[in-house]
Amino acid sequence: MTNNATTRTEKFVVRFPCGMRAEVSTAANHSHRSMNAEIIARLEHSLGNWPETLPQGETAVPQGSEEAFLLERFRQLSVTKQQALLALLD
């Protein structure tokens, strides 16, 4: 077996939300990097600054709004996922 870059790396498939691939491509072109190199650079930067970059003292959902938040998220789910969630709660 040869000792090249593909044997020294790990592969991981990522599913991008619609439109994100184009954004990564634009950023990579702007930075004169491949899309893979752009993603790696951004992940390294993000992980290198974690957890300092997390919001401090803030909650994801404002206090007192938890029920409305959960209801809105539930309504956004497909019927199948709603049923699965309800089955878990039973």
UniProtKB/TrEMBL annotation:
Signal peptide: none annotated. Keywords: DNA-binding. One of its GO terms (biological process) is regulation of DNA-templated transcription. The keyword Ligase does not apply. Pfam families: Arc (PF03869). InterPro entries: Arc_DNA-bd_dom, Arc_rbn_hlx_hlx, Ribbon_hlx_hlx. The keyword Transferase does not apply. Residues 9-47 form the Arc-like DNA binding domain. Coiled coil: none annotated. GO terms for molecular function: DNA binding. This is Arc family DNA-binding protein.
